């Protein structure tokens, strides 16, 4: 007798296809496993995960990358498991954060992989995170009430009747599809194409924006000058791969790093819009200091209408950051202020044009004051007649940043960091609810605001800036200046900065940054087909004067279900990741005990998915049969 005859009520297995096998898929499946006993009601499920890279780490966190590349977070600041802080409907299923795993079950795994065991305050190699995610994936699969099949290839098409077509030609009929594609490769912009063509004609090496770990650096020749535009994470990775990655090494004597070149390094002339590297990550913690709800930049203050960023939002951001900074200063370091916090708080609430004079009177040391414009552009208004003088100034600036970011006497910086996280969540909600114009969203939030956030809160580990200084002392890294302009003149790239006299010539130029996300320019064949057919929708963004701002993100509703070009919602196609509107937690891993928005969204999507797949026949009817 067949299973169908024994259980006439039993439905056939449900099939789910995940396109993308990185951390987002792992986290979503963990939440799926947690709620399945309550919602799946015994239905068999078959799960397929499609990704050309290994499931768990995906492309960014794969094992096959240089062990010299580090995470941008401390070991203790990363987890993929929910804890008691997470506010969600599904059950909490605790698991080890990265620091706990490293000290426990991960110790043997790391030893076998030839990786050192990082401490909780260390910035571990990305390969450590790759091992953690691989372990998490195996645990999640063990807990899933489903059969799991992985496919190490690309998905190239999703048909109207919900069949996922793979590169190999195999087709998988799905009851539900989740696109969790992570960061997407994109076509070059018109400017990048022009650069590439001109460089090729002149026999020059041009490297456009891209993920540094995947970039071919062979065209950057030993001892030859290279112009680098970009001073964030992409530059730090480039610096590491072109120095230690080419055989150089460091030693330390009395706290000072010395770099020993291998002779294979190029000479890097680095500049950017600001002209300075991102601030080092904070090297301390303060008990009880954590992100708190915003005071000024609130949903109530923003209302529900269309906002002008400069008029309605930016002043509230300035007040929010100033409040966080000065409250911590008055509370933790009262010996450095004059007057009472109550009086100062009243002045903050009023935020009149005379506030800077109030701050100067109450806070004698300029180093203790918060002026966002000065923090954002430390080289503004400065000019240098010779490069040697500029480089001495830069060295002092970076040394001062390292000292300050390691000193809890400046814990107001930590308060600002936490306020930035809270502000980001409010801005994300305003964007999701359509309160900002396309122009404000792209130019003010995604460019200016995100740039300031990254500069202050998402900089490199302190050790990396120490290495930067050592490389400068060794003559491997030179500082090119702010607002760096690059052009091709005959057979050279030429770089100039309005802040530093002179020019730099080189036969190689690297744009050290990630390309701006633009789903309309994606090279992914699956997404291109869905957009062309109208099965997916994405914004094409324009400024008020009609200037194109490029493509925006894929459109999804509040439940992360795909929105078609005709405005209808696809009930069984879910979208998650940095290229999707309203996708939470896409900027990085959640910290333990932080109630990360990515956890909350993963839980809600997992439960919606389970309800979609649950048997349609009521339990009472099954019992009767």
TrEMBL record:
- Report domain FAD-dependent urate hydroxylase HpyO/Asp monooxygenase CreE-like FAD/NAD(P)-binding positions: 17-183
Pfam families xref list = NAD_binding_9
Q: Which InterPro entries match?
A: FAD/NAD-bd_sf, HpyO/CreE_NAD-binding, L-asp_N-monooxygenase_NS-form
Name under which the protein is recorded:
FAD/NAD(P)-binding protein
What domain of life? Bacteria
